[in-house]
Amino acid sequence: MGATVSSSDENEQSRLRRRSFLIGSGAAVATSMFGALPAQASPPNAFPDDYDGSDLWLRYEPVADPGLLARYRAALGAIVVENAGHTLVHRHTANLSMAPGSTEHLVQSTLEAARDELVRGLGGLLGRPVPVRDGFPDRTVVVGTPDSSPLVRRLVPARDLAPLGDDGYLIRSLSRGGHRSIVVAGNTDLAALYGTFAFLRRLQAQQSIAGLDISSVPKINHRYLNYWETERLYAGNNPAGTGGLNGENGAIFDFTATGASAALNLPVILDRYLVAARAMASLGINGITINNVNANSFYLTPAAIEQEAALADALRPYGVRLAVSINYAAPTDARFAPDTLTREELDPYSAKFRDWWTRRARQLQAAIPDFMGFTVKANSEGQPGPQDLGYDHGDGANGMAAAVAPLGMRIFWRTFVYNADVDTDRLKRAYLEFGPIDDEPQPDGTIGRFAENVFLQTKNGPLDYQAREPANPLFGRMEHTNQAIELQVTQEYTGQNTMLCYLGPLWEEVLKSDTHATDAHGKLLAKRLVGNVVDGTAQGHPDTAIVGVANLGNADNLTGHHFAQANLYAFGRLAWDWTLDARGIAEDWVRLTWSNRDAVVRTIVAMMMGSREALVSYQTPLGVAHQFRSSDHYGPNPAERLARDDWSPVYYNKADSAGLGYDRSPTGSGFTAQYFPVLAARYADIETVPENLLMWFHHVPWDRRMRNGRIFWDELVYRYQTGVHYVSWLRQAWDSLERHVDARRFAEVKAKLAAHEADAGSWRDTCVRYWQEFNGRAIPTNGPLAITIVVGGRPIGGFDAGAPSYTVPVAAGTSPKITKVVPADPAAKCEILGQARGVPGRAVVRITANSFFGPILKDYVFDLVAAAR
Ligand code: GCW
Predict the structure, then answer these.
(1) pTM score over 0.70
(2) pLDDT in tens, 273-294
(3) Is 381 in the active site?
(4) 814 with 803: CB under 8 angstroms?
């Protein structure tokens, strides 16, 4: 498809950008085809222009559609929450109070939380107060449980509530004798609160509330956050870095802030704690471990326990329970003197060790009766553990578990271990250490040594939260052990607080990936997706857990990047129901957070949905893992070689003159054998391994033919380029929303996207140049956005699509005008944004096309210069 040019002559880029000349079908059609919003007039956005994002998705803006507003108002005349103040939750801290000037408020019962959320939510959405009433007026929303509410007992048959368990809820429209109501009910106050948020979500997303008959039960029992207050914290309120300001460290909860913030430490409760609590409850998150797994034993000291108790008091009405991470060697810490142990006394079988932990757990339980237990990172990355005394992870986990079992607590023991003595391939190590413990016959005739109150907490992949990994082979392998999956919500390897990367698709991919797990007779299990293993349906586990390493901080918007809120949201929704699809979750989030206008929703959802695959493409395409510089895990450093082999990008890329990638097949490290047979065979063979994991399992020759016919080197380079081109499209798509998004958030995201594009380009360039050192090859020039231009009758092509600009010599006496643009992809759209008026001069050609993960865009910048004579 060629194109004839019809543009005026201009040579200044800022002016070029304002005037765009489209070749072909007309601007509106072309842009909407690629997801950006046509620039037509529309009503101004409802959010105030200075809105900072601090409400997360709990934003209750008045419903703009007059018809819908009228229907909502007609249906929702009153709120009835009977006996809301009857069942008060425990409160330890006598003088629990909000910081001066707070806007949130403390409640002391879960039903009060539900009632107040309805008052706030319906009042905002309906644009007028909705009164709280006694009795049973017409047009009422009733919230409660059969215990709290005689009305619920009357309106909802017991048999309908029975299958909901403790956390499930139902939402039902009822109409009797002309009397209409909506009832939100569960078996517990917390379930009623969950139902309340689900009901409000419907209104926020402007869905119909007529004829409701909804029920929902979570698939996983424990839906927890881990919060690392000192590491990978990308949501601090200091925009120049990740830290805090005014004596805060950037973490969401203040324990030890100094200076101007010293008066804000717990037990004082800040607004953001309650926003976070409401947000967690809105998703059904029911626990949080509040400190880093590289644990500071401060959190076990009496003074800290008092602070934790205050936090627990504030979160309790929302059903969010507390745990802390511990250091295995905490008993040796002088802060507990005289109650300390020697290093030799850390024997997990000894009464001394166990009693020490029982004492600590009792202190916690005295202040926090529903304290959950401990999260443990042991013998990992320098942390102490049972192996220091010659014991294994089973001994250590069970020793701790025995100490806290009488108190009803659990141990979450992480499997993120990779002791170099176990195997040269880091990926094989955890399986080799944990697997055999699961197989051990026990004296009571059962199999598997891990105690019942132990959960192994396992990262989704075998390496370390990379943007793409195969599922961890421990899923399905630990048949006799409780196992929680650990996902990283904070974007350590996925762009931190700069890149827009929606992680829903990553988690959906892993939760829905087939383990091909078999039973003891080698027969494939009927239910065997990773999600089935996690929710217990694969192997019949009654207790189940999912953990997200959270991305909260003290930034105004709580997550640093406005789009990082989506990741917390998606984690929570998937924790409740892992079978949901990432796109639907994104759509809900956009409606709750940005806008209900369909065209805006479509554009933002499109921006989100390709963002993770784009990041994979410009950072670590085709299965090459962990090419991050070690200093911060943000930028690239494929050449880096560290003292620790298994922290070094070179260890993962294995670049040489023959090719690239880590051979983990049977001819290499043999890691593939840790998978169940179907997967082991698929991954072992370079012909059958999924191409997106190619270099994860194989050392790939530069000339290897890919499935699309290209050679590996060319495809590799195009993947890097395509990822960056997606980010260029993101910027254009976002710009198209300027009139539809409140000003402050628009500008903040726009600035992040500019940095994102530059940093994605640096990933592409750094990696491609480094690979060239091994293969000596040129950059291929026939990628997805390749073009040929015609100037003065002469076709010019072969451009490196990764270059920022191109010099085009123009013969004396010929016009510098581009007369034709021919894209390699016939479906691509070409647009000449401007022509050079003379030489030297500048022309810009925009190419837009679709890649396999979404729209891509490149502006070719041509510097037209006089040809040398
Ligand atoms: O990815 C690594 C991170 C560490 C982290 C560790 C872990 C808290 O770089 O920051 O330590 O994983 O998960 O234990």
Answers:
(1) yes
(2) 999 999 999 999 999 999 999 9
(3) yes
(4) no
